[in-house]
Structure formats: structure tokens, C-alpha cells
Amino acid sequence: ERPDPPLNLANLPILQRLRPFFTPRFIKFGLVGASGVVVNLGGLWLGMRLGMRSTAASALAIQISILSNFAVNELWTFAELRPGSRLGRVVRFQLVSLVGAAVQFGVFVGANLAALRWQGGPGSLHAYFDRAAPGIVGWLQHPVLDPPDVGTWVYVSQLVGIGVATAWNFLANIKWTWGERG
Fold first, then answer.
1. Do 43 and 60 meet the contact criterion of CB atoms below 8 Å apart?
2. Low-confidence ranges of the chain (pLDDT < 50)
3. What angle do CA 100, 179, 105 make, to 5 degrees?
């Protein structure tokens, strides 16, 4: 009886799908993203220091980092991939980033609620939502319009949101914004 051939891990379907994440381009994208994290957290800090609600400061910080990330990706990460016009690429990048921003923002809000629960125990969420307007709309609006004060955990929430949105942003941008195929 012949032994089974050795398992070639590189041919596993899941690893084939993950292949784009093990490339020099993803490393560049990650480095640009890391600089975007600094811009994003700096924007969040500045917005909050200027008296903005954490949710408004987060949204502004996300947009500032989207624009800075486009500029660096355009000039470095995808320099040789420039299909169509720059305006078309910036619009596609913005659309991809807005989906990523929605994901990031949703995770940010959810992580803030998780931090509140973790810091204050189960009763803290009940007490927090008791101040919300009645109904599902009130419950959905309350964490956005009157976010819980979770102290420095707000930065952890922002980082978790950034991390969750990164994979979407990379794949959508490499396939659509800069049009690399394969």
C-alpha cells in the first residue's frame, strides 16, 4: 500500500483566498494603514479636545485618514496600477472607504458599549439605555448621539474598528479602485 502524498498546504482553498494578504503590496498597504491609524487617532484626540462628541470626532477622524491613505496609496502602494482617471480612483477609494468606515464606526460604537459593560458590570448597560428615547430608534440613536464615557477605552474601540475594516478595504481597493486582477 502506497502512503498518502504529503499535504500541500498552499493548495488549501482557504489559503488560496488568503494569498493576497501575504504579498509585498499588502505590507505596503499595512504600512500606509498604520500611518492612517496615527492620523485617525490623532484626529479623534484633536476632535475630542476641541469639545466634539466622541462619535463626531470619530467620524471626522475616519474621513481625514481616508484622504491621507488615498494619497499615500496612490503614490506608493499602487503606483504602477493607475487605471482610468485619478478622480475616478479617488471616488472609488472613497466609496470603498465609506463601507469600511461604516464597519469601523459600527464596531467603534459596539466596542464602546462592550467597554461600558466590562467596566461597570451588567447593570451599567441597563442604566445607560434607561436614558435612551423609547423604542428601537431610541436605542440605536443613543450610543451615537450620547455615547458612553469609557475613558481611554475609546481609543481601543477605535483601534478594534480599524482592524475589522482593514481586510475589506484592502481587497476592495486592490480589485476595484486600482483594478488589479488575479
1. yes
2. 182
3. 5
